[in-house]
Amino acid sequence: MRKAMFVGAIGCGKTTLVQRLHHETISYDKTQAVEFRGSIIDTPGEFVEHRYLYPSLMTLSVGAKVIVAIQSALDQRAVFPPAFTTMFPVKTIGVVSKIDAASPEQITYAEERLKNAGVQQIFQLSSVAGTGITEFEEALNQLTVGVEA
Fold first, then answer.
1. Which domains does the chain have, with CATH numbers?
2. What's the whole-number mean pLDDT along residues 45-70?
3. Which of 15, 63, 16 lies closest to 42 in space, CA to CA?
4. Taking each helix axis from N to C terminus, what angle separates 133-143 and 14-21, rounded to the nearest 10 degrees?
């Protein structure tokens, strides 16, 4: 069983966050297919951006203990539809990414998008700058206690 499944639009920072959590060199890498990276399931952004791929997300979520919905503060689209998180059989937490490059208004908008999707616990972070990573990692570890990679 895997611990966490990361979902979000293309370029929202899913893979960069995985790289930061694994203490890897941060470099842009477009995820072309589902990647099992340690205890994290890294999904392509297309899975969220194209609704006909939602069944793939639902199937993959069976192997997760928590879903991490990531909304870039720089992406002002409503990426996640209302009640998006209700399709998953496990808890979903949210991440507003790229806060180091965003205005307070952009961050607030991204948080509202996640709340509208059904997320209640939201973390603000920058994978590049390292802001908020420690708090997010601690919370993720608490949510996935007892799950092997």
1. 4-143 (3.40.50.300)
2. 94
3. 15
4. 80
